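writing this on my phone so excuse typos. first protein, seq and then structure
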Amino acid sequence: MAADYGPGRTGRFSDELLNEIRAKSDIVAVIGEYVPLKKRGSNYLGLCPFHQEKTPSFTVTPDKQMFYCFGCQTGGNVLTFLMKREGLTFGEAVEHLAARAGVALPEKGWDRRRAGARGAAAAEADERRRSERDLLYRLLDFASRFYHQALLRSPEAEAARQYLRRRGVSPASVEAFRLGYSPKGWDALLKTLTAKRVDPAVLERAGLVLKGREGHYDRFRGRLMFTIADHRGRPIGFGARALEDSDEPKYLNSPETPLFSKSRVLYGLNLAAQAIRRAGRVLVVEGYMDAIACHEAGLDFTVAAMGTAFTAEQARLLRRHTERVVTAFDADSAGTLATLRGLEVLTAAGFNVKVAEMPEGKDPDECLRGAAGGPEAFRAAIEEAVPLPEYRFRLALRRYEPTTIEGRVAVVKEIVPVLAAIEGIVEREEYLRDFARRLPVPEESLLAELARYLRAASDARRAGVRDSIAKWRNNEEGLGRPGRRGRESLHRPVEAAQRTLLAYMVRAEETLHLVLAELLEASDWCSRIGLDRGDGGEREEEQERDQDEVAAASEDDFEPTEHEALALGWFLNPVHRRVARAVLDLARTGSVEAARLVDGLGPEDEEDVRTAVRALFEAENLPAEAEKAIRDCVGVLKEHRLLSRIDKLHRRISELERDGVPVEREYAELLRELIDLERHTDGGTGHWTVPGD
């Protein structure tokens, strides 16, 4: 069979060759280089590298050589994994695996006529992209070696060599990190590469030169050069330190290029990866010299964040190797607070994050060179690192005077976001109680400030549905009242979601079961996040109000099972609920045929019949990707239920505050419930989009 010439593939790979490469590439071993996997029966389980999660849902099945994430529904084979994880084209992924498995690949000349015009064009574009990336990798590798040789041999680089000697950097580290020096001349690298017939425009795309009025010139001049490599050790960019006080900025980094993005790389990770796995943790420092000094001191599980706040991409890089992070920053540096806030990205991604307390004004490099106790004191600080919330609290106590009212207010203002970032309910409660005692402030007051913070953070998100919730609560437009206008007064996306789910229920048996499964999962979700403690009494009142109407509409002996009742409870509009009930009744005794459904509703139920007919017609024009569409619709209903409960909590809390009894037990309990629920308003509850809406 001819190879697939679809987008991202290249026609030089036959099916037989691809099968051979897959057969010789153990998917567990390949993915295990990126994701810590644990054996569970015949499968392997780990935290998904494609979305943030705390509970492992990423499964690798060796027998089928496939992977699948039950959280984000990403799946495929070993080639798919590399393409998604590394951003590789199909051809690049094949070449990577082939080299790893020792499989020889055919030459790149292939007969495009076999592919057809469209396939040939796609493959040709793929080949161009691959060729350009290969060229950029070669140019950056050449530049790295060029700078490295200049550092070792150029008389002009003596100042850089002296600087490294003063900082205690050994020749071995100079070699391992491939440190270098960029000559002061405006075109030293440019001349060397153009003499090899490299187009200056390509050098510009590589981030090595700049273009001025009179032509191109070297981006880096007269600086100590730090080679930034990807996880495979390939140079992708540079950091450059000024050697003279008059040169600004002090540090200059490569620009964004097809290979380099500062937010997606960690300095030294390629050298530290194996040590991180051995140590079971990673030490994160701020700068290049800090990372090198730590490696010199034997702490070879160290990487540098290069002065940036952590990003989700960097978190995924670390997730391949460990779940434990220790940071060592200078407490007085200007960017430390921003960097620490960035570490909350790691906390949210499920990492165990601790912070080593450095002596004031000292960085790891200075400590390791003898300041403030020297290497032993630094290692002790690493071992005694404290959890991130505790460190943020200590930092706030040092920054403000807690013996004054103003100081305590400032500390509370700074630690409330820290408390809000803690995922675990028990952990958050313990920190809240401990911080309140040590500050000291009443525990209820700190709890109230935390609730206000979360309330303010979610106000913008809730603004779009607040009015509709109020109308639903007060029944201002008579939702579901026969003979009155405004039957769809509920927030439009919620009504649209119910209609779409109903259409999928009557479309086919398969989609009916998909709807029921998603609605039952939604009920489970309510239970997991505590929403079943009180999910908005309005919903129960609405259902009770319509019980007689539902019973009257069902003249048969249909009694919903417990699961069916849970699913029906998600249909807030009683008309939709009655039609859904009729669909379930028909599904028990046979197929859900249009005539049976309409006849079963009866001619007197005009609105029910009209709703059913509309669902039958809409079922013909639903999106083909049923699972995603159904999931989106259920997400809308979940979000509405969550925000409805939050709205009710806000109203009751405001009543208690107006009555002047905010320290009563009910107030504290409501605040705790509000805090728990507010944490779920930023994701995982669906998107306000409904197919066809």
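second protein below, same order as before
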Amino acid sequence: MIPQDFIHQLLDRVDIVEVVDRYVPLKKKGANYMACCPFHGEKTPSFTVSPTKQFYHCFGCGAHGTAISFLMEHAGMGFVEAVKELADRTGMTVPDDGQRKPEDGRRDRLLAVMEQAAQHYKGLLKDSAKAVDYLKGRGLDGRTAAAFGLGYAADEWQGLVAAVADYQDGALEEAGLVIVNEGKRYDRFRDRVMFPIRNERGRVIAFGGRVIGQGEPKYLNSPETPLFHKGRELYGLYENRRGIQQAGRAVVVEGYMDVVMLAQHGVDNALATLGTAVTPDHVAKLFKLVDDVVFAFDGDNAGRKAAWRALENSLPQLPDGKRATFLFLPQGEDPDSYVRQAGREAFEKLCDEARPLSDFLFDELSVRAEPDSPEGKVRLVKLVEPYLAQLAKAPLLARSLRQRLAALSGLGGMETRRRPPGHGAPRPPARPRAALPSPARVVLQAILHKPERLANLPELASGGDEDTTQLAAVLAVLREHPELADVNRLESFYQGRPEETMVRAAAVALLQWSEDYDSEADLRGAWATLIEQSARRQAHAFAGRKLSDISAEDRANYMAALKEKKLDRLSAVKPDR
């Protein structure tokens, strides 16, 4: 419900290079900026950001859009959240269209009290010798503690009284900071080291508290709130996003201290689940960030059970081209203790040698099936097949694993029928030739490159093929609304309409033209082709018809086209008798 005019003004003000660079390190190349695409795996950069056109495009996977769509697709924000994020950066206020619901402000209120609590806990940490000694004893230094915003909740029943204006405020209870029991209010977190949990924007949405000394539970997390759903969030995502992008790999661990200590030792691409097993939402979010995910678990039985749960939840979310691997640490070690003892290089070597999902799957199920007998081989097939059926997003991987299953079980013919004798391998399909841009698209592209050219072009008849008809419609709109002669505005205007494909293709192709590129010749050639095609279509349509049956307007248009193109071919129109 945000007015379209406001969206246009926002996109005019925002710097998409700054927005994207926050998540994906960009390098300047000519007039644009380049990077490896964050939406698919690649080694050669094909992801381009245009500061003049204010949009991005990947020539590999086709990802394309504005700063708003980037935050939605890459950072996982909703539309309104992305607009508000950009508005905050540019100092703009999102207008109220009169349909704002009362609960819309509730989230802002909850975020405010969470930030107040985070600052309060952070301030107390400096003055708590007990908490500082505990963290130092774990090997943590002050710089890392500050980077992750660590704090301390005092051993008091109502310690937050000093942090907020009104301890009776219902937002404290709704945010999970305060518990109300039989009319009495008291802090949820007491005498604990506090780990703030941030969303992608860096806003505190929950806390994890680690008890100092003896006490249960050892780790206490915020409850489910309107801000926090533990099955969707990952600790360290905000702090380590840049490290994850640079490494091209995310390492999923089990604890907050694992993430913090790994970062302190140079492994700044780790994330932790929040007191829960790896969920499908976690996996989906991870594969939006990177192509390679390592699940790191302790080597004990509990760690192996947790790893198997992660495998089960990964299968439906795993696309072809992505990779999930499983790392089991030496007995008695966790990532925190291992990296402190062995160092960054040793830990990263373990990650490099982690077991692929397919190996983990087959090894575990082979132990259960005992495929040393015909019965065991059949049992193996029965065990594995339901898991392979879940690879809906990875048909190529599923096919490869079925071939592996056929080889292990000895039950061939599971994939394809055997070819008749004498038939060799099928010929690979011929590589399709790159399609040339249509004249209509080239004309539109040249107009978007330099909108002032439109004033010198005559009206274009809408009759003819689909491209010409769509171009005529777009040019008519641009004549009436010249303010739309901007890539982002025109794409927004035609979103969901038949002309969207042509407009988007022209916008993408603009990335290959610099501002000083002389596209006049392209425009003239494409326009002449359109006129010639129009004249030929009209000549074909008039063939066999009497001149009196053709309207004066059609005759005039046809003769004008003939004159402009200087066609020598005689008309097939029959004269009146």
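DSSP finds 23 helices and 16 strands in the chain. thats all i got for now
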